[in-house]
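Reproducibility note. Readers wishing to regenerate the assembly model reported in the main text can use the exact inputs given here. Chain order matters: entities are listed in the order in which they were concatenated for prediction.
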Amino acid sequence: MARINNDGQWIVMLGFIISIILVFLALIVNQSALVGKTTSESVLEFPKSEIQDLRAEIMEYYWTDDLNNPYFLPDLHRLSLERKGSVVYYVPGERIEIHYNNGFTEYNEKTLGGN
Amino acid sequence: MRVPRKIDREEGLLSLDFLIGFTIFLIALIFVGVMISGLLVHLQSRTIDYDAVAYRTSVVLVEDPGEPANWQLANLTYPEERANVKRLGLAIQKNYPGILLQDKVEKFFNDTTSAGCLAEGKFCNPEDYREKLIFGDYPYYFNISLKNLDVPSPPLTVGDPIPDRTRYGYIKRIVKIQKPDSIHLYNVIPDSASSLKTASFRFDIAELYDVPPPYRIDPLNQNVSILLQDFSPNTTGAWPNITDIQICTYPIALTGGGCIGADVYEDSPRMIVTIDGNKEYDSGDPATNTVTDTVSINLEKGFFTRIGYDRFGTIDLIMTFDQNVTNQVVYSYDSDSAASLPELQSAVLEVWVW
Amino acid sequence: MVNDDGQLYTIEGIAAALMIVVTAYLVVSTTTVLTQQDVHIIDLQLQQLGNDALAMMDTPNKYWDKSNLSIFIEGNKTNEFHNQFLAYLNAESGSGMITGNYEYNATIYYQNSTEINSYVFYESQEYYRENSVKVRRWVFLSDSSPLLPDLDFSVNRTVLLEVQLWRE
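Running the prediction on these inputs yields the following structure tokens for the assembly.
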């Protein structure tokens, strides 16, 4: 009785291996589709407008020579903490120090204020 | 006796069956290989990051003053100066995002196609913009449009028109453009009442710079326009002649020298003195420098930087006549003499990338 | 002459080819682009636009002028605030067609002597849980505002204007 001839099985084996490689590639492509999401998410996460706004407001007090306003720092501090979830502090002086921390991003600046 | 087998390893014969089977397999493999390499093209994710590119381009335009910060003064006909401009940002200063400088806006939207851009001194569309603004290896198509919302005027555009059926990235930014101060006006006092033969215009740069940049009168980076008017003949009926024009740092003795003649440069940026609206001042030919109406002085932007003065100086522009023209020791170039002060106008900037 | 021999390799070849093609087809058809990423792009555009609009309204056009935002809050000019804010959001340069339909709620938060209080400045429409972003701006007030009666205006004050912005 003749044996089952297994000679052709290497072709099927090749086909099978290539299929596995294709599935593996599919996994990589799936990962790459997340790239766009991460880009815009990380942009949304960075508090660019908050820091620019904070700086502009402090400079407004600088140009009107009112940096020692008794209400400004407490208002800034409490409203930032309550509504924005960020800690804000500034120190007037010859060099104005500005500190900002929202848990993810920290920003510190020492500036003369003239610009 | 050797049993004949389908493949006789010593004879090198392949059966027809094997050939057909293997051919079918190979064809399918090539077909799938080409299909998958088309799939791998998607892996470069060009369709996903158009919006990110548009957003980044808009941030460079709106919030970055560019590199160098006074790139609007560069003369683009010189290749080294063109290569020196690394980033095209339109903002007036890094601490004032969203406020654009008019000179930068005009220079940015002054483009031309690749053929003549070097000779004409304009930006090459699209190479310069891709290299200095959009960045990245892929040659993106772009369209950047700016429209002034306060003053009705046609929108400024650079780039290709947006195609209908393509996915594109888009961002819209609201900005304000600084309209610089206009001409500064000064009056002459008739000869009978005046005692000085020199009209001195003082540029106190330190004082002018004590104002936030969006509202600043900036003689170092912007055009300076002065109009001296109200001339009248003296008691003998002779009109005044300009004998000399000098630019000096103040005080002259302390800084140790720094007076130069007015027409020291022939090319831009330079000083242009116009008499009576049509004659140009000529220091070599004094007879032509008679003033009967007005004298206008125009210092092109970048002139003071060219002759080496900076924000820590006080500069005097001294005009000498052959008769008395004024009682004022110094005419101050400041907010009081300007016909209109710098002001901001709202605008919208849109960026498309595909 | 015709018998079953010689079909071995052909059948194996066809089987392998079929397997590869089917797998490739399945792989290609399952890699659809995730639509989630589009939503975040829209959030990014909306937030940047809202922040820009508030920032430009808070910048005076001439030196020593009050900014528009200060004038609107000090004078209780809600309609003018609405008109200018929408004008900025809907501004177009004309090169492409972009749709608008923005709605928003604006609230002022301030700190009086004891607590943080709020005043609803403008509501263009009831919020029904659409996808929204919040944009905020500090507003510098030098004169008293009738909207905030419990605030001490003997000196300059700063309040927080919070705008919840969405597209209809």
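We highlight two features of this model. Residues 36 and 42 of chain C are 10 Å apart (CA to CA). Residues 36-167 of chain C form one domain.
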